[in-house]
Amino acid sequence: MTDKTLFIHAGGPKTGSSALQNFFEISAARLESLGFAYENRLHIEHDYEIGSANGMLMYELVLAATTTDDEIDSVVSSYFGQCDNAICTSEYFSEFSGYHWKRLLESSLRLGVKLKVIFYVRNVIPFFLSAYDQIIKRHGGYELFDEWAEKAIWQHGRALQIMASVLPRSSIQVLHFDNERANLIKGFFNSIDADAAFEINADDQKRQVNRSLTNEEREVLITVNKALGAAYSKEVSELLIYADPNARGEPVSYHKTTADSLLDRYNTEVNWVNNTFFNGQAVVSVLPTESIKETPCQKLTTEPKQKGNVEKQVLDWSLEKLKTIKDETEQTIMDAVYIAAQNTLEKSHPDIPADFDVLAYLLINRDVLHSGVNPIKHFIDHGKREGRAYKL
């Protein structure tokens, strides 16, 4: 390969990656006409779908301890298709160690491919506010922001320090998300020197993917997470976000003491980023661009009717989920009874009481029901000895 460039979009986390990735996905044919391949796509069902990064194949392969150099070279080559330029994107690249970046760099050198890593860095507190919502949406979080922030980490500084320790400075391009977000897609294409005539319509430019939560959505999700843990946080959050994908997120309030603590923790790291990638200019900061005000608690500002709509959506989901669980349970019972019915010989076993009720045994002994074992055989092997009930 010669005169080829692999553009690795490595995030960082919470910098509009999902919106960029969905645009790449739905515009793959147009990108190819400009000479930029977007291969190994995951294919999305709608424009707001979360999780369409084509870089997962690369990430998982480089991360695996048993991957050979030839295998890495092969997957790098697969991203080019018929083009001289390739776009490979995943926020997970920001988790690479120096060793992983070294392997990717060495592969590009073997193939004669120019490696260019594009990384968006975000101000610390805005990053934390967005990451906090992500924990609520996808991982069942329900802590107060001020408590959560004490333990959370600004991943951008560390990721950039690791890259800078391995990759040539000329291979890393850092963009300030807080300045770029209004024209995120156009800015990305400017950074890769794409044809300036490439048109991006207004809908694509303003599309929010994996948006932050409104106050009402956050309050409802925290309630759900407290009750159900992480089991349904992703499902419920997607229900709310997909129902109103263009709603404007409302950052949670926080105490000034939290801002002061984050300043102490990250000021040195932020200065390093500015000195290394922005010629010492104070581009990246710990604080948001707007002034902060101490607000002791989150306050709801939306009309009650809007809150009611959010709660109704979750209630409707709950009823549907209960129906699904009911249907699944009924099917499990039917399957178990059917299995028992096929074993007519076992029903005449001397250890089976004449009044043995298969259905009652399953309903009383839920572990037997959910294990899927033959209830008659279970009673013979275990139930009688354990004194299990078999009549309602």
Describe the structure.
With 392 residues, the chain is an alpha/beta fold. The protein contains 19 helices and 5 strands. It has 2 domains: 4-212 and 251-266, Rossmann fold, CATH 3.40.50; 343-392, no CATH class. 54% of the residues lie in helices and 7% in strands. Strands 2-3-1-4-5 form a 5-stranded parallel β-sheet. Helix 6 (124-139) crosses helix 13 (233-243) and helix 8 (155-166) runs parallel beside helix 14 (256-277). The model is unreliable at 291-305 (pLDDT under 50).
Number of strands: 5
CATH class of the largest domain: Alpha Beta
**Major sheet: size, sense and barrel closure?**
5 strands, parallel
Q: For the record, what is the CATH homologous superfamily label of the largest domain?
A: P-loop containing nucleotide triphosphate hydrolases
Structural class: alpha/beta
N/C terminus separation? 74 Å
InterPro entries: P-loop_NTPase
Q: Could you give a short description of this structure?
A:
The protein is an alpha/beta fold and 392 residues long. The chain has helices at residues 17-26, 28-33, 56-63, 69-78, 98-111, 124-139, 145-149, 155-166, 177-180, 184-191, 202-206, 215-228, 233-243, 256-277, 304-342, 344-347, 358-364, 366-371, 375-386, and strands at residues 4-9, 36-37, 85-89, 113-121, 172-176. The protein has two domains: 4-212 and 251-266, P-loop containing nucleotide triphosphate hydrolases (Rossmann fold); 343-392, no CATH class.
